[in-house]
From TrEMBL:
PTM annotation (4-aspartylphosphate): residues: D55
Keyword Transport: no
The organism of origin for this protein: Fluviibacter phosphoraccumulans
Top-rank taxon, per record: Bacteria
Keywords noted in UniProt: DNA-binding, Phosphoprotein, Transcription, Transcription regulation, Two-component regulatory system
Record's protein name: DNA-binding response regulator
Keyword rRNA-binding: no
Length: 230
């Protein structure tokens, strides 16, 4: 099934808009870049658009208002809101206005591309494993349905280590070394506590299956694909 998308990028920063268009075009998508909502084609003309990337702080009509109009008239279009605002109440408002994914700037274009790939496959009805996006500098984890949660530095280290290992498997002693828990009174119990807490957080992203599997008498395997950005 064709996973290429028709994407509209509405971003008033000329350099960021151009860079985004370049990355998405090279990935095979058809991309239209606009600097404000007022130059957007009439809503009736958006029937062939798959996804819109909307900056929140646009001149004229703001991104939230635009996202709400698009969602009301074209509920089938995917919407990603990008913004420098990271307040949780603003994030909640973004989702309430129709965003599928709310991403905080500055963000790596690789992270945006991965989010687009995941959302695009859902829009086209392609079944795929749940994918997570880990930002190690912000200590955030983006889930497949757009939810974002904060991680501790220990949890981020754990995910990064799993992601770098073959088949995302690590022995217990390797994980203890990665997490620098060698000097703990009970290193295995400390590791198990970190695993339990991380599993619980991942369930908050709407992923019900076991994300971290125990390999008896050996170690653990992380069962979800992860894209790591900085």
């Amino acid at each position: 099934m064709d996973t290429r998308l028709s994407i509209v990028v509405i971003e008033d920063n000329d350099e960021l808009r151009a860079a985004t268009i370049d990355v998405l075009s090279r990935a095979g998508h058809k991309v239209l870049g606009l600097d404000c909502a007022e130059v957007m084609p009439e809503l009736a003309a958006l029937t062939l658009v798959d996804l819109m990337i909307i900056d929140l702080n646009l001149p004229g009509e703001d991104g939230l208002s635009l996202a709400q109009r698009v969602r009301q008239n074209h509920p089938e279009i995917g919407i990603i809101i990008t913004t420098a605002r990271s307040d949780s109440s603003q994030r909640q408002e973004g989702y309430a206005k129709g965003a599928d994914i709310y991403m905080t700037k500055p963000m790596a274009l690789a992270e945006l591309s991965a989010a687009i790939q995941s959302l695009g496959r859902r829009l086209k009805g392609i079944s795929e494993p749940e994918m997570l996006l880990l930002n190690v500098s912000k200590l955030t984890l983006l889930g497949p349905h757009g939810q974002v949660l904060g991680l501790t530095s220990t949890e981020a280290k754990l995910l990064t280590a799993f992601n770098l290992s073959p088949d995302r498997r690590l022995e217990k002693w390797q994980l203890i070394e990665v997490l620098e828990k060698d000097s703990a009174n009970n290193p295995l119990a400390t590791l198990e506590l970190v695993i339990v807490r991380l599993r619980k957080k991942i369930r908050q992203l709407g992923i019900e299956d076991q994300s971290i599997k125990v390999i008896r008498n050996w170690g653990y395997q992380f069962c979800l694909p992860v894209v790591v950005t900085t």
